Amino acid sequence: MPYLLRRLGFFLLTLWAALTLNFFIPRFMPGSPLQALRDRTHNKLSPAALEQMLTSYGFKPNENVLVQYVDYLKNMVTGQWGISIGATLGEPVTRIVRQALPWTLGLVGVTTVLAFLLGSLIGTVAGWRRGGRLDSLLPPAFVVTSALPYFWVGLLLILVFSVWTGGALPSDFNYDSGMQPAFTPAFVFSVASHALLPAATILITSIGGWILTMRNNMITTLAEDYVRMGRAKGLSDRRIMTAYAARNAMLPNLAGFAMSLGFVIAGAILVEYVFNYPGLGYLLYNAVQNTDYPLMQALFMLFTVAVLVAVLVCDIAIAILDPRSRERDRSGR
Amino acid sequence: MTALLVDSSTATGAPVRRRGGGLWAAVRGSRKAMVGLAIFLVFAVMALVPQLFTSVRDPNALQFEPGLGSSAEHLLGTTALGQDIFAQLVYGTRQSLVIALVAGFFATVLSVLVGVSAAYLGGVSDETLTMLTNVFLVLPTFPLIIILATYAGKGTLLVILIVLVVTGWSYGANQLRAQALSLRNRDFVESAKVRGERPSYVIFKEVLPTMTSLIVANFLGAALYSVLTAAGLQFLGLGDPNSISWGTMLYWAQSQQALQTGLPQWSLAPGLCVALLGVSFALLNYAFDEIGNPALRPVRSARKRRRLRARRTRAGGP
How far apart are CA B79 and CA A328, in angstroms? Predict the structure, then answer.
């Protein structure tokens, strides 16, 4: 248990660091939100109204920085994220975020987990059949795919499957624009067909890394004595592969998964931008284009929380798979 | 982008003492590394003397008929704005390569500084530095970069470089610390300490040379990260829109709807160049991974192995 408690402490510390960065970056950078807001409203609002909008997301130029900081932390944690000052002027940030969140979770979340599981599985088999056909073909191929820029793969897929086929697969938005969201087969089909190309983009570019690291871990693990011991005991190949080798080879991959989520989010932003997919990444792009500071703040916090939650889940998985991680604490390390 | 995740088990594996000469021999012996090096050299020549490859001298000037297909005169046609695509591609190499090498170099220096001193100093300094590394590891850097680039104004080359270094060092620091930890109590380090050598001597003359292959691998990883991230940033329009680089080309192609208006080569060609440069770093990286961890090397046929052994004995090597 202390292991998980320590990881929870790390969770809080990182969240605090992210929030603090979030607070200080706008305040130490050129370009003030006040000016941006004045430009956006074309000088039509009274200074008092402007001031009030700024205070609504914690920008109080007259207050002590420390007071501002404490207020800001309180607001961020309690979900009072203020009001958008971008293209969606006046709308609460929470509502904007709530509309975009499911699309990102559905597209990026599901695809990323799928890529990880599928990649680890393929890597397990490739490492197990060392020097087999799968093993000689896959690693070089995936060294190449994992170095491709996300957005470029997206552009390529759009060209081949959307432009060249005369629009057989849609290349933008989350469903056909004429439709009403409902649980009808037509709507579900529309959502699925719109998600197909962006999902393929993420899958193609991210699965290679998992296959490679899992294969390499498998090869290292298969040389261990406990694997030979399993063979000597006469266990079935399948059992040695899964319960002996893969279970151990998986551990560094799980830690790697947590670390690579930053890259996944980077890719997701670019993929959503390429496909005009109305998720959080696309929202961040728009917020940046419109210098919508409150929205940017909330989104950056959400991305951090998403990564941290995933890290915590990986930590829990490691604690379950690896008794040593629990043991280490008991011995007082 | 997950190619950056070098297998961490190599970091803790038994490191071999190896000097720079060993690296070159290892690159020559690996086909993957040679392919990667060849791609890199072609780009390096393009970056150094772009005049060799094209007769166009000002690739950003709107001097041609817009939207031409490929011809002998314009190898890849012209953009919707009337620039020669091939010339832009050639001249754009320089910035992408500079970003890769400079950001990769400084990020690696930072990782070595933080990682090795954390492992060497131990105690509270180690705890603090490790914590800092871990925080930077999980902070979602790309959104942070986007936000930083927005606040800093349109990203000039310098802004992009600084941002890439600040966000790109943590992965390497984590790995280097792990390997340096495993070295700390080795006999040759202990004996240097007993001899009464200064800590700086022990670190630079004893510990660091042993870590060469991992440091090179980290440099390649950081360079790959920088190329891809910079291209992504410029693609989103956060770079300097007047600079000549592959990312900026992609930005203009996207904003002029190149794919939909029958000029796919405008956006595919610079993307392919980014990808090729990325692939060259990834291939070199993969090869260095195999050098650090011989178990990962492809299984050689018996005949090849015999030939290799014969060559080695002739060269008088081990």
Answer: 61
Task: Tell me the per-residue pLDDT of B63-96, one tens digit each, with 9 for 90 and over.
Answer: 777 666 777 666 677 776 777 778 888 888 888 8
Distance from CA of B275 to the nearest CA of A (A): 5
Output phi, psi for A130, to 5 deg: -55, 125
Instruction: Inform me whether the C-beta atom of residue A188 falls under 8 Å from chain B C-beta atoms.
Output: no
Global pTM reads 0.80
Q: What b/e readout covers B176-211, taking b as 16+ CB neighbours within 10 angstroms?
A: bbbbbbebbebeebeebeeeeeeeeebbeebbbebb
A window 247-286, beta carbon within 8 A of B? 252, 255-256, 258-263, 265-267, 269-270, 273-274, 284-285
- A-B contacts (CB, under 8 Å): 196
Backbone angles phi, psi at B155, to 5 degrees: -70, 110
Q: Which two tokens stand for residue A97?
A: 């975020």
Digit-coded pLDDT (tens) for B145-176: 787 777 766 667 887 888 888 888 888 888 88
Look up tokens 């390390």; give the residue: A333
Residue type present at position B191: S
The fraction of chain B above a pLDDT of 70, given in percent, is: 77
Residues of A in contact with B232 (CB under 8 A): 149-151, 266, 270
pLDDT of residue B283: 84
Sign of CA dihedral B269, B272, B273, B274: positive
pLDDT tens track for A58-96 = 566 666 778 878 888 888 888 777 777 766 767 788 888
- HSE of A199, CA atoms in CB hemisphere, 13 A: 20
Half-sphere exposure of A202 (CA within 13 A, CB side): 31
